[in-house]
Amino acid sequence: MANKKKQFTAEFKQNAVDYVYAHPDMTVQQCADHLEVGKSTLARWKREAKANPNHEVPFVGSGHYSSEAEKENIRLQRELRDTQEALKIKKAISILGN
Question: At residue 7, what are phi and psi to the nearest 5 degrees?
Fold first, then answer.
């Protein structure tokens, strides 16, 4: 059976981040275990909320963004990463070809 990726609502993500802040005596790992999410996932939601001016998780749901500007920013970052990877491959090919 294929491993299906869980999708969480924005409300769940925000509540999870609020839960972490409401329980300073617990580690992120303990909170993640209690909420049945991965530690790295919860840590990312917390980091994203902290980076956002209103301290909210910026994603509306899986792959949905809170604003068009944020969506465009993510698209441009992905495009830049892909272009940089392609450039590295071209350089490697030219080095191997010589």
Answer: -120, 130
State the residue range of the domain holding 22: 7-65
Global confidence as pTM: 0.54
Note the pLDDT tens digit of each residue in 22-79. Answer: 999 999 999 999 999 999 999 999 888 888 767 676 655 556 666 778 778 888 888 9
Whether 60 and 16 share a structural domain: yes
CA distances from 59 to 56, 68, 93 (A): 9, 11, 38
Phi, psi at 16, each rounded to 5°: -65, -45
- If one counts the domains in the chain, the total is 2
Residue appearing with tokens 């910026």? 58
Amino acid present at 12: F
**8 Å CB contact between 65 and 53:** no
Length of the chain: 98
Rounded Cα distance between 44 and 35, Å, is 15
Distance CA 67, CA 31 (A): 29
